[in-house]
Amino acid sequence: MAILERGSYKHQMPTQNPFVASMHHLDFFPAGNGNLGPGSMKKENEGFDLSADWRMYYGKNVPGFPAHPHRGFETITIVTEGLVDHTDGLGSRGRYGEGDVQWMTAGSGLQHCEMFPLINDDKPNTMELFQVWLSLDHEHRMVEPDYKMLWNEDIPRISIGEKGRETRITLIAGEVNGIKAVEPTKNSWANNPINRLSIQLIEMDPGVEYELPVVSGTMNRSLYNYYDGVAMVEGKELRKKMYMFLSADEETIIKNMSDSVIKLLLLESEPIDEPILAYGPFVMTTKEEIRQAYLDYQETQFGGWPFHEQEVAHEKSLGRFAEYPDGRVEKP
Predict the structure, then answer these.
(1) pLDDT tens across 10-25, in order?
(2) What's the CA gap between 248 and 154, in Å, rounded?
(3) What is the pLDDT of residues 193-205, one digit of tens each?
(4) Could you count the other beta carbons within 10 Å of the beta carbon of residue 154?
(5) Which of 130, 32, 140 is nearest to 81 (CA)?
(6) What are the structural domains of the chain?
(7) Cβ neighbours of residue 22 under 8 Å, at least 6 residues apart?
(8) Residue 297 is inside which H or E element, if any?
(9) SS (H, E, C) 211-275
């Protein structure tokens, strides 16, 4: 049997080494107020209420996550709908979304904020994103912070089967059928092919079967149903908001048992053969390193936060772009 564990989740998906956390955000934001914030708001929309249709998270004026620190790992932010405004204390900023992916290596430490600008004032601003936390190994935990955009236009989309009976794969990381994803940041665990790391969004038409390839007995493989419908995986149902941990050295058949499309998230990789300790915004190898991370942040603020506001959103008129600390500007 290829299934090692299965269960359900609410917002944060259970993960396996080297993945530290995986969050799924789906917010049905209303029309904007002209200043990138919501035009209307109820009490349940304040804060982080997962039962609400949308939420402000920690933002006061614009939804999102104001300035906060990270060290020792990477964030991979996959935005399928809506926009994100990124700013960090080292001089990077950008606006991305509608299929873009941001790959950020926190390394030795930085502060950043992630705000969700509500650009449309005349219609809703629905937003969906995944954020995956990927550990660095001990050798690379304290590398210089790095940041890279994987633009929607460059991300491989792979179709298997005939129209109406297809499996469609959005390849964020790794390789499928000889097609390789856009390279991640240079010090990422994903950058070494022997680690066989892959991140995929998989859509399957009704009645379609798809076989996950046999890889190795040491790989960790996780599968999540984040949409609707039912997938049958080796005789077990995978319904909305359910996950499975799968063996990667056995044949695994997925079949869409629904009369509509199903959408799955696949995370897989060879593990990091070292302790991984996550505490708050830091991921390190030992408790002493966690304590040191807090001390370093208190002393240095990881380079500081050179802005008047903790939540920074960009000008409404700007499109998708990335600006780097050296002043280089990149657009899709």
Answers:
(1) 889 999 999 999 999 9
(2) 28
(3) 999 999 999 999 9
(4) 12
(5) 130
(6) 1-11+157-274 (2.60.120.10), 19-154+280-310 (2.60.120.10)
(7) 12, 13, 15, 130, 131, 132, 133, 224, 265, 267
(8) helix 287-300
(9) EECCCCCCCEEEEEECCCCEEEECCEEEECCEEEEECCCCCEEEEECCCCCEEEEEEEECCCCCC
